[in-house]
Structures are given as C-alpha cells and as structure tokens.
Specification:
It contains twelve helices and four strands; from the N terminus they run ββαβαβαααααααααα. It has 370 residues and is α/β, with parallel strands linked by helices. α2 links the parallel β3 and β4. It is elongated.
Length: 370
C-alpha cells in the first residue's frame, strides 16, 4: 500500500505491506505514477514487512526519478538489512537506459557465415590432429601391449559392450519383425512371399544390423565417453594427469577406443542374429515360412560376403565413434553447460559420420561388384 501526504516541507510517502517480486504488479503502477508537486520527498518504510530485490528496485528507481528532478529523498523506518539491500540495488541501477542493438544486416550475416566456416575448418583440423594422435598411440600400444591399461579396458568393454547387449538384441529383433511384416505386405501383391528371406538377410547382414548398432552405441557409449572425460576436464583432472607425467590419450582414450573396436563387431553380430530370429518368426506367423525353410533359403541364397561387409564396417564405425566422443570431451571449456553442449555435439556428429561412412562403403562395395 502507498499513501502520499503533502505538507509545507514537501511530500511524505508512506509504504506498507510486503514489497516482494511476486506481488509487485499491485504497486508498480502507483510507484511509476508518483510525481511530487514540489519540495523534498520523505519515504516512510516503517510499515514494510518484507523486502526483496524487486521491491528495493522500485524504491531505488523512485528515488532516482525524484533526484533527477532536483529534489532530495530521505528514507525513514528502514531496517539495517533492508537499507543495505536498497543501497546495493541503487548502486547497480544504470545511469542511462540501454540502447537497443541494431538488427544485423547482410554484411553481418556474411561475416557470421565466414566466422562459422573458419571455426568449422579449425575444428576439422583439430579433429584430424586428434585422430592422428590416437592412431599413433594405438599403434604404439599394439607394438608394446604392456602399456595398455587392462583394468580400464575390461571396465570399458563391460560398459560399452556387455551392458548394451539387451537393447541391441531387442533393437535387432524388432527390426527383423518390421522388415518381415512390411516385406510380406508388399511381396504378397506379386506372389513372391518366399523372397522375404532374402530381403531380411541381405538388408540386415549387409546394412541395417551394424548401422543401427553403431547408432545406438554412438548415443549410448559415445555420450558417456564425452560426459565422463568432459567432467574430468572441468575438474582439472586431466591437467593433473599431465602434471604427473601421464598421457591422457593413453590413459583415457585408448582403453575406450579399443573397447569399442572389440565390442562393436560383437554387438553387430548379436543384432544380426536377433534380426534374423525376429524376421524368421514373423515370416512363420504371417507367411507360413517354416523355420527350416527360412534357414535353408538363408543358407542357399545369402552369400558370406553379405555378412562380411557388415563386419568390415564395424571397426571403422567404432573408431569414428570413439575418436569423435573423446575429441569433443577434450574441447570442454570448464563449465557444466559446456559438458552438455559437447555431449550433444558428440552424439550428432558421430551419428552423421557413421551414416556418411556407411554410404561411402556402399558405393565402394558396389563399384567392386560385391
């Protein structure tokens, strides 16, 4: 509540109640419309029960407007704590209103595009440098296997491989079911239902099995790599490693990359088997293709190269996911927000590069006639 009293010496403004941010809408207009006719202003705050930053800002803004008109302002009845808050808020009110920034024009847009392009080029060079460093440490580890941290490797194999088996197997089974159901729906129109076996086997073994497994691993394990190493970067644990003479690439990156190189082909194989089981089950239910007939046509009409092509891709996908995840973690800039941003970027870039690499492999093997 605000009450104003005029006397010969000036104006006495009595404020009472709670001046809290959530209830300022009831008094904001009264404060904004208050203009003393003449003389100085005395603000009596004896009746103020509670005051926070929003209420202090209203009082300080009122005092600033009164002083700008040449009058003096005096406060009465304010507790020491509230007076300290009011004084702090008054000191931080800007003297001049902010100037709205000009809307960016065409030149600004071109400059921003150039800056992003230059940043992308620098990131590409940094990533290639990190890839070369990782490959160097990986080759050195192969030549000197006693340098490999076996405990860390086993732990990462468990996290990236063993614990991912249920979701990968379920994904493969459902993909097989979907392919069989959709394939049967289309092939029935031509009386070629039996070819659903080739549809499932070739699409799963050659492309979908390992590709979808890599995407799941990128979202599950790649994000975990970035978050864990990024958190260590924020807490300066990586700097501490370097101080102790330890190589972060050898200690943190190599066990994770090697774990992916070992486990991703195994997960891809599990996804293939689960997809074939799901496809065979759906073919039996929907088309009447018995498991024996499914296995026979699978053996007769699906070459070993269909399976081999998928397994050839697996190590390359694993290397891409591991390097991207760890490189993004090394780019964290000392805040929890940066960890989240880099984790998101890690997943997006890993999935994009895996799909792009899969497309390149498809073109390569098609040119070879495989």
């Amino acid at each position: 509540m605000i009450q104003s009293e005029q006397d010969a010496n000036g104006v006495c403004l009595r404020v009472s109640g709670k001046l809290l941010t959530q209830s300022l809408d009831t008094v904001e207009k009264a404060f904004a419309s208050f203009q003393p006719d003449r003389g100085d202003v005395t603000v009596d705050l004896t009746g103020v029960e509670a005051l926070d930053t929003g209420g202090a800002w209203l009082i300080a803004d009122l005092a600033r407007r009164v002083r700008s008109g040449g009058a003096k302002v005096q406060f009465e009845g304010l507790s020491p704590a509230h007076y300290a808050l009011l004084d702090t808020v008054a000191e931080n009110i800007p003297d001049k209103p902010g100037v709205e920034a000009e809307r960016p024009g065409f030149v600004d847009w071109v400059a921003s595009v150039g800056a992003r392009t230059a940043g992308a080029w620098k990131d590409t060079l940094s990533l290639l440098g990190f890839l070369g460093l990782t490959l160097h440490r990986l080759v050195r580890t192969i030549l000197m296997p006693w340098r490999l941290r076996r405990a860390a490797l086993v732990s990462q194999m468990e996290e990236t491989g063993f614990k991912a088996i249920p979701i990968v197997a379920l994904m493969g089974f459902l993909i097989g079911v979907v392919l069989a159901f959709q394939g049967a729906t289309q092939l029935k129109q031509f009386g070629a239902e039996i070819f659903v076996v080739e549809l499932i086997s070739i699409s799963v073994l050659r492309e979908l099995g390992i590709l979808l497994t890599a995407i799941i691993v990128a979202g599950r394990s790649g994000s975990a790599f970035t978050a864990s190493i990024g958190s260590m970067k924020v807490q300066e644990e990586i700097d501490a490693m370097r101080t102790l003479g330890l190589d972060p690439i050898e200690v943190l990156v190599i066990p994770r990359v090697v774990a992916l190189l070992i486990m991703l082909p195994i997960l891809g194989f599990i996804a293939d088997i689960a997809a074939l089981i799901g496809g065979g089950l759906m073919s039996w239910i929907d088309l009447g293709v018995s498991p024996g007939m499914f296995a026979t046509r699978l053996k007769e009409n699906t070459g070993i190269w269909q399976f081999a092509i998928g397994m050839i891709k697996a190590p390359f996908f694993a290397l891409v996911i591991g390097v991207i995840a760890c490189w993004q973690a090394m780019q964290v800039k000392g805040s929890a927000q940066s960890v989240g941003q880099r984790t998101t970027a890690s997943v997006v870039q890993s999935i994009f590069l895996v799909i792009a690499l899969d497309a390149l492999f498809s073109i390569f093997f098609s040119e070879l006639g495989i």
